[in-house]
Design a protein that fits this description.
Oligomer: single chain
CATH class of one domain: Alpha Beta
Bound molecules: glutamic acid
Strand content: 5-15%
CATH topology of one domain: Rossmann fold
CATH superfamily of one domain: HUPs
Structural class: alpha/beta
Strand order of the largest sheet: 1-2-3
Amino acid sequence: MPFVTRFAPSPTGYLHRGHAFSALTAETAARQAHGRFLLRIEDIDAGRCRPEFEAAILEDLAWLGLQWEEPVRRQSDHLSDYADALRDLAGRGLVYRCFRTRREVSGEIGGAPHGAMEVFRGQALPPGEEARRLDAGEAFAWRLSLEAAERALGGFGGLAFIELGQGSGGEHGEIVARPELGGDVVLGRKDLGVAYHLAVVCDDARQGVTQVIRGQDLFEAAHVQRLLQALLGLPTPVYRHHRLLTAPNGKRFAKRDQAQTLRELRARGMTPTEIRREMGFD
Ligand code: GLU
C-alpha cells in the first residue's frame, strides 16, 4: 500500500511554529512508512499570496531539515484543472451561480434561528433573473448545491472516511461524512473562479495523496471534501488531523504573530534541532 502525504501551505505570510509542527508531523509519518512527502503551494488567491512568502516557505522548511519531492506543485499553475472540475459539476447541475455579496450571505446566516447551524444554503435564481444579472455583467460565485448533491448520490449515508488522528471533537476511526456542516460551500470564487475545497480535492487526487495529514482546524473540511470526492469520482485518502500547537498563553499560532515565525526564531539563534526537540521530533 503506497503512502503519500503532503504539506500544503498558502504563501500569505511566514511560516510559524504551528506550520513547522504540521510539516514535521507529515514528513515524519512519510519517513516512518517509507512513503513519499510532497509539498504543495496553495496560491490560488493571487491577491493575498506573494512570491517572497513562497520563497521563504521553501527556505524555512529546508532550514528545518525537511526534504520533499520535486517538483513542488503550485496551484496557480493548474487553474485549468479546477475549471474543468467545476465545469463537470456545473454540467450535472451540482453547482449554482450565487450573486449575493458577502454581506448579504452573512445577513442571511445571522437570521437563522438560534442554535441552527450557521451555514449558507441557497439555490439557483429563476432562469430569467439569472440571465438578466449575467447580461448586466454582475459577478457571481459557484456554490455547491447540497440538495442536488444529495439527490445525485441518493443521500449522504454511504459517505465515510477514515480518521487516524483526531477530529475537532476527538472523533476517530470510520467517520460518516456530514457535508451539511459546510453548507453550500463556494467552489468557484467570484474573483478567482476556483476556491479552496475544489482545488484541494483535485490536487490530492492528481498527486496520488493517500494520507492527508494536517491540523485539526481542517477536520470539518474533510466532510465537505469527502462529498466532492464522491461527486467527482476521486479516491478518498485516509485523514489524520493532528492537535494544534498552542502558545504558552493557550492561543493558536497565527501568521500575524511575527515573534513566532521560523525566521524570527532563527534570527534569535534557535536551531532546527531545538525546534524539533521542543515539538517531540528527534
Ligand atoms: N492551504 C491550507 C492551509 O494553509 C491547508 C490545506 C490542507 O492541508 O488541506 O491552511
